[in-house]
Every structure is written in structure tokens, then in C-alpha cells.
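Inputs:
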Amino acid sequence: MDATLSSTTHDYLLLLLPASATFLSPLLAALLVVVASLLWLFPGGPAWALRPDTARDILYGAAFADRPVKDAARGMLFHRAMGFAPSGGDYWRALRRVSGSHVFSPRCVAASAPRRRAIGERMLERLAADGEEAVVGMRRVLHAASLEHVMDTVFGTTRYDEEVEAMVKEGYDLLGMFNWGDHLPLLKWLDLQGVRRRCRALVRRVDVFVRTIIDEHKQRKRSADDDENGDFVDVLLGLQGEDKMTESDMVAVLWEMIFRGTDTVAILLEWIMARMVLHRDIQAKAQEELDAIVGRGRAVSDADVAGLRYLRCIVKETLRVHPPGPLLSWARLAVHDARVGGHHVPAGTTAMVNMWAIAHDPEIWPEPDAFRPERFAGEEGSDGVGGDLRLAPFGAGRRVCPGKALALATVHPWLAQLLHRFDWEPVAGVDVDLSERLNMSLEMEKPLVCRAKPRW
Ligand code: HEM
């Protein structure tokens, strides 16, 4: 399906219509239009924001503070997790408050920095063990590190096995797939695509896995009465009074964190590294900065990151060119009628911000397709990702990504470690292919394979 502007080019709400229908027989075209109408043109169909001002109406609008819960999300119990719980309720507010004052608070993010750096060091050791000028499949390496990190933040352990990886992958596949049942209620009950069946099977596995970890925490708490090591399980177990959670709600909340935190960070780093391999001059400039601030005699420390201004610009530019959630994947739902960019939007409409389109709009970003970290060099003091909605890869408003600071506190030092220790080069005969694939996140269609050459 092609995207077609609904009336004039100043209309920033986009409806999806099958433009390709003109090439089809009239009967088939008519059928497609009817199906498209059923799918999209009802309240509950999508409205898209393509400009910062309409994005603002959606992201900051009180009407759009909920999310549509897809069948797969409900099947995986995510309606009880932070990302899909209705924002009007105490439950969602309590989750935001509790996570915001513990795992995602600046104090906790800073306190866990040494553990993140250690995970980064282990990643470098594994790469070095592969030998001089090793050919590296980056996706595997980055995904493993990211999963280790999220396991540490959420469960207080870096231990994970293939079962966890498989569960995360299955969850992504289920949430990312187009499910006819989300649009045609009859099909929902028939479950022709097997979404509900697969969700039930996945939830059983997740339940066993997460409850085992919760039990271990309860044991540890009883034996050591240790309030110090505040991972997210400890935090949730410690809730009292009205905030106290049932164990099945805890499973949903903890599982969502693993699910959301793992791929986003790994995908962003894979895009950054692809750009580093393609733009060797930019890589060299970042390494010059590292040599000036860190030198070659010691490992990168957390304190160094503040001085690595160019490296942070590289991260911003990658978030602009390859936003991992290009449609701010977690859409918003209008809980009552609203106006967006002067248009009436009825209650029940799914609203999406096309951050990819905004970040590639030549009226907003000169030469939008050029990868130029320097464009952010003048932005002293601002993190430049979220404030003015020209670049809001973590969303904005009351449902903004709570993991933003944690994600950046992971990506910056790991990128510094990777560039400090190795030169990254293409492998002869293997192209760095920037084709995109939109699943739950926008990932590289062809995983990055490159060569890591120790710098000293
Ligand atoms: C590069 C990394 C990441 C990107 C690009 C990203 C992006 C996003 C986006 C676009 C949203 C929707 C925001 C909105 O509707 O305004 C979101 C929501 C969310 N993210 Fe992230 N995210 C990242 C990392 C993380 C991490 C590391 C965690 C946790 C460990 C996390 C947890 C969440 C949660 C729980 C929500 C739902 C919040 C709510 O609805 O109240 N994210 N993220």
C-alpha cells in the first residue's frame, strides 16, 4: 500500500489507501478499497502526524494518552504492563512513578554505570578473542550485550540463556506481525493466524521463567534482608499498600522491560556501527576525539563520555536517520474526540507519529539523507532528542520512553569502547547494506558483517 495525502499537501493527517489499485482490475481495485475502508477509515483506523506541530498535538494531547492494545499485546498480558496500561488509571501512574524513582532515575542510572562498562568490556574481550582482524556479525554481539544489560537492570543477574533470547524473539514476531484480527473482529475470534495460540504458549514459558526469578529474590530477601541491591524485581517486591502488585502483574511488568529494553539498544548500535564502517572519515574523527580525551593507555571510563561531544553527535545523527521506532512504534489511542492540525479526530482513532518522515523532511533538515553528525555540533547543553519534536526518537509527553536516559547511558559508553579499541572496516565482497526492515523496530534488513581490527 502506498501512503496518500488525504486532501492538500498542508493536510498532515495521512490515510493509507491502495494507490497501486489503479494498476488492478476495477473489481479487484473496488474490493481493495472496501477492505481498506473497513480497516482504516473507521474510528479506530490510523491518523498519522508528519510534521512536528501535528506530532505535538498527538504526543502532548490529553486525548492521546492511551495506546491501542493489539490482540497480541493483550495475549502477552502487556495490558497489565506499563506500555499499554491506560494512563487514566492509578496502576499506570504508580508504575511510571516507581520505575522513574528507581531503575530509570538519574541516580540509579549513574550507579549502574560500572556494571554497564563491565558488560562493554566483556563484549570487547569476546571480539578480541576472535583474533586479529576478525570478521564480526555485529547483531549477535550487540544483542547478547544488550540482553545481558537489561537482565542486570531488571533481574539483577547477567545470566541468560537461549530460552530468554527465543522468548524475546517470539514476542517481537507476534507484536510485529500484521494481524487481521486487530481490524476485523470476526477474525479475532477465529484466530486464523494462530496469534492467540502462540501468545498463550509464550506466556506459559515467560511465566515459568519470571516466577523462578521472583522466587529467588524472595528467598534472598528473606535470608539476607538486603535492601541495597535494588534491581527492578526488588523494587516491585518492596511495594506496599495501594501500590502492592499481584505476582501475575509483576510478571507482565518485568517481561515488558526485558522485551522493550533489549532490541531497541542493539538495533540502534548496529545502525551506528554500519555508519561507522561506511563513513571511515567520521569513524576516524570520533577516534581522534577518543585519543585526545581517553588516550591509548587505558580503558574508556564513564567520566570520559561527557567530553565525547562528537561521539554523542554520531548517536543523535543515527537516531535521526535510522530511528529504531520510526512510527514511534507504540501508537497512541484517542480516548475522546480531539483536533489534530485543525482536523477533527474521533475517539477511538489510532494516532501515529511518523518520526522517520519528520527526520527526513528537507524543510526541517537540510540534506536529510546525508549522514552528517556535525549538524548537531552547535547544540550545546541539549540532548537534542525529544525537546522540539524535530527529533523525538524516544517519543514525548506523558508516555515518553522512560528508558531514554538508560538507553543513552548504554549506547554512548559502548560505542566509545568499540571505537576506542578497534578499527571497523568492511569485509571484502560484503556490502554494508542500509536497506531497512520495519518489524517492531526499524532494523537493518541485512545484518551488519564487518571486520574488527585492534587499534593497538
Ligand atoms: C534506543 C533505545 C530506545 C528507543 C529508541 C525507545 C523508543 C521508545 C518510544 C518511541 C516509545 C513510545 C513513546 C511515546 O509514545 O511517546 C517508548 C516507550 C517505552 N519504552 Fe522505550 N525506547 C528505547 C529503550 C528503552 C529501554 C532501554 C527501556 C527499558 C528498559 C524502554 C522502555 C519503554 C517503556 C516501558 C515504554 C512505554 C512507556 C509508557 O507507555 O508509559 N525503552 N520507547
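Residues 59, 82-83, 96, 150, 257, 260-261, 264-265, 268, 324-325, 328, 330, 393-397, 399-403, 406-407 surround protoporphyrin IX containing FE (CB under 6 Å). Flag for discussion at group meeting.
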